[in-house]
Amino acid sequence: MIRYYYYHIFYVGMMNIMVLVPYVLISHRFDGAVSSFPLAIACGTLYSYVTSAVFQRFPGLGLPEIYKLFLPVWLANCLNMVGVVVWCTAGIIVLFSYSNTVGIFFDPEASSYLNLAIMAAASLWAASRTSRSVQFTHEVLLIVSTPIILWILFKALFSHWLDWDAIRLVADAGIRKPPSMVCLFAASFVFSGHMNITLFNRLNPSDLKFRFRWIIPIVGTFFLLVSFFVPIGFHGTQAVGNYLYVWSVTTDSLMMKYGFIQRVLYLFLLLYTFLSLVFVMNTWHTGMEFFKACFKKYKPQTDEVNVPAINWWICGVLAGLTFVYAYFTNDIFNRVAAELWLVTRFIIESILVMLLIVFVVMKKKGYMKRIDESRSPQSGGANR
Amino acid sequence: MILKRTLLLCLGLTMLPMLGGCQLKDIDKRYFVVSAGFDYSDNPAAPYRVSLRLALPSSKIEEGGAMSVVQTADAASIAEAVRHLKSTVDKELEFGHCREFILGRKLIEKDGIDNSLQWLSRRRDIQSVSNVMVGDPDAYSVVSLKPKSERYPGNSLFLSFGNEGTEAANTVTTYLFDLYRRVYETGLDPVLPVANVFRDAYKIDRAAVLDKDKTRLFLDSDETLLFNMTAFGVDNTILVLPDKPLNIVLAATHTTSKINLKGGEDPVAIVNIRIEGFLEQSPPHLLEKDWGGLERKMGKHFSEEAERMLYKIRDAGVDPYGFGLHYLADHHNAKGRWEKWKRLYPEIRFEVRANVSIQGSGLIR
């Protein structure tokens, strides 16, 4: 089912707001943000084409299984652990910054741990399900929230308070500067929805063709440009740098005059609750599966009836880690952590893409450590 | 086993709503602030006077049924004054519904808007779409007015702005986020509506143009109308052509304006404006005589008036239109363009090209 692949592309495109991508880009708006966009678009598109092409050749196999085919066990396990760290920290950062945003705008008086506890409980429960359930939950939440998020984006885009002079000024000034690396790393996040295939390829039937891939650059470019330029249009070239949660302030500048809630912000935050939960669910679930793949006895199961206890334990630990992180961190550190994560993610993604190409070559030449025990697609609603 | 787990789960779920009770004050322990005014008191130790209008909830909703109280406190800063105010009321202050902030005329003439803006933009419960205005002669008189027509406390003031209630042609609407952007932006200056009390009602028909901090210029009612049409393209305005024996009045239903900047040695700012409407008042059979001529005459009259207003704004050294920003956006990345613009702006010429089109005589025959 090709649509599950594009769900990931779509929601990561929208999620960039919560990983502080617009904040990073806007803080570099006069030195290299805009000129790094073409590079980011090229990189992101190329990477998603490569990963999807490679995974098409390994139907039904997740990344841990592919590692096992070509690499010695210890190396495969190391790489799995790298995956665990990258995926899980993403979830933790998003969970923290989201509960913080909610605390700031929804209910400033309540303890931020309360918000975190509720969200962490939901994420824990959702992430510990089977891959198939996660995929379905993802679909439902995304179908509910995407139209309204797009509506808000277009409302902002066509608002007459949007100052096109400011946008032109930044675009003009920015495109003439040499691109900045941090901005390239941050901007390419918008395109990295394809990375979720590393796990969810397990659910793909063997005859899946990745069609309509031209959608990826279009969707990514749209979300990238909107999430960077619309706040600039609303807050001007200078004042926009004074905000950390740029998009929350931007949606607060919109009004639903005839809606039953006037502040668009509340609707926006509610929708981003869904998206953040989806993001945390996906990242933690992927991290969990990667971790489990390190054990010898582990057999990838995507449609288990009973959730194994280990799932609860791993996700419980992750939720606990989020609390530890929330205890020791603050807004400034979280900003740095998000930036660091964006950089690391890009580097690891690049390494992975190269590794995948190597695997394809190895498969062609027949250098395989183990035999490809071509797994029959597991039973599940999506295949039928 | 299953039963026990289900029971436990149910118990857990029923406990969950109790979490909402933690650290949250009930609505009946809150005072909703509906408008806030900042004034400059003449006491140097406590220069800021904050007046808050607090809504008293009532069971009946009818015109004139809105009840509210006004509280005032003086302090060295706005944040401190609000803290002091808390000790004079019995409930927690809630700013989430406050959409009107009135800055006293004396405050922004003497102290500037910076202090007020810093407080406003830091409070997270204050909406970015709040209306900010200047209170003339002071904010307190605007805050403490209780119009008879109000259904809810405070709603008559914000209905005056935007086009929520009345669509007044010479009311400038400035939202908080817009004010904040204009204060920081190079080449774009803030403009605020001026509200005063007039016979048990608000009169908001003038505008104050500010440099980055203090007021430089007050536009009168007619100039505000022209400004509104040329800068924001506000619809539903009027266009008057003085004539004998009767002024000819065009009710403009649709206005679009576009600014075109020609730099170089002899810089010209061209404001293209298109006004459509019908005649609301005119001597009989005027249109039959010379339809096109009347349109041209009205356009010429409008251009002259608008140009006079533009020169007045230019000579005050402010730029609420954003000509400067427009210039910067046009002249890419040339070095020293901002300095060049600062040299150019005092000598810039304005050309208003008004295209008036009369849709009908307005008569029903």
How would you explain this protein's 3D organization?
The complex is a heterodimer of chains A (384) and B (365). In chain A, α3 (33-56) runs parallel beside α15 (331-365), α5 (73-105) crosses α14 (309-328) and α9 packs across α15. Chain A starts with a helix and ends in a 19-residue tail after the last helix. Chain A has 15 helices and no strands. Residues 379-384 of chain A have low confidence and may be disordered. Chain A is an all-alpha fold and 384 residues long. With 365 residues, chain B is of the alpha/beta class. In chain B, strands 1, 2, 3, 4, 5, 6, 7, 8 and 9 form a nine-stranded mixed sheet that branches. In chain B, α8 packs across α10 (291-315). The model of chain B has no long low-confidence stretch (mean pLDDT 83). Classes of the chains: A mainly alpha (384), B alpha/beta (365). The A-B interface holds A 104-105, 107-111, 114, 118, 161, 163, 165-166, 168-169, 172-173, 176, 234-240, 242, 249, 252-255, 257, 262-263 and B 19, 22-25, 121, 124-125, 127-129, 162, 164, 175, 177-178, 180-186, 188, 322, 325-326, 328-329, 332-333.
